[in-house]
Design brief:
Helix content is 43%, strand content 16%. Strands 2-1-3-4-13 form a five-stranded mixed sheet, with helices on both faces. The protein has a four-stranded parallel sheet with strand order 6-5-7-8. The structure holds 1,3-dihydroxyacetonephosphate and iron/sulfur cluster. The site of iron/sulfur cluster has 14 residues, from loops.
Amino acid sequence: MNTVELKNKISEAKKDTGTVILAHTYQDPDIIDIADITGDSFFLSKKAAEIKAKRVVMCGVRFMAESVKILSPETETILPVPSATCPMAEQILPERVREYKKANPDAQVVAYINTTAALKAECDVCVTSSSAIKIVDKLKADEILFIPDQHLGSYVKEKLPDKNIVLWDGFCPVHALLTAEDVIACKKAHPDAVFAVHPESPAEVVKLADMVGATSEIINYAKSQKGKVIIGTERGVVDYLSTHEENGDRFIQLAPEKLCCEDMKKISLQDIYNAIIGEGGEEIILPEELRKKALVSINRMLELG
Ligand code: 13P
Ligand code: SF4
C-alpha cells in the first residue's frame, strides 16, 4: 500500500472507530498531516484535558500517552509503538523524590512533563518548557527541587535568581549533544540568520541564542522573522516549518546529525493504522490511585501555567 492509500485508510478507520489522533510536532510530516491535533507538550496536555473521544492514538513518546490517560481516564489511549519512550523521563526514581521530600518537608518538587506517571505522582507540580518560568515563579516554597532536566532547570534558575532551586542532573540525550562550536559554525555559514533554541540545550548554547523557547514558541518566533532562522531543536520543527510556511528554505537546521530524537521517530503510518483498528500498539493502563496523584500535579500545571 502506498502512502496516499494508507492515509485514506487511516482517515476511514478514524471515523469508523471514533478515534482522535494527537501528534507532537517532532513527528514526521506524514503523521502531522493525518493528525487531528498537533502541537508541543503544553498544548497537547491542554487538549488532552478537553478530549471527548472514545479512543486516542498518541503519536509521541510514552509520557505523552500517559498524560492523556491521566487527564482523560475514560478514553482508551494507545501508544502505537510501546518502545517509544523519552529517556529523560526515567532519569530519577520515584524513591529518590520520596527521600528528598522526607528530608526537606518544606520544599516543593517540580517535575518537567517529560517524566513517568509514577514520578508525577510524587511531585507537587508539573511544568512544560513553555510554562516552567511562569509556574516556578509562582511557587512560595523556600526550596524547589527541579527534576529531571538540569539544562531546563538551570535556565529557569537563571531567570528567577531569587528562588532557591536545586537541580537534578538529568538531561535530554538529544539536545544535550549541542555545543557552542555547532552554533558558531552554523552562524558562520549563515551570518545573516538569527538563532532560536530549546531550553533543554546546554547553557553554553542557550547563551548564544537570540530566542529561547519551547517548540511552539520557536515556531511562532521563526514565522515572525522575515529572514533566515537557525533552529536549535529536534529536526521535526524544521520539517514542520518547511512544509507549513512559504520560503521554507529560510529555516536552517542546527547540527542535523545530532538533533534527531530516535524515540520520537519510531512511529510509522502503518503503526498508527494498526493502533486504530485495535491490532497494534499498547493501551495505557494506570493504577487509579497513581493516576489521581499524578493528576494533582498536572492540574496544578494547567491552573498555574
Ligand atoms: P516541548 O514540546 O515542550 O517543546 O518539549 C520538547 C520535547 O523534547 C518533548 O519531548
Ligand atoms: Fe525526550 Fe529529548 Fe526526545 Fe524530547 S527530544 S522526547 S526530551 S529524548
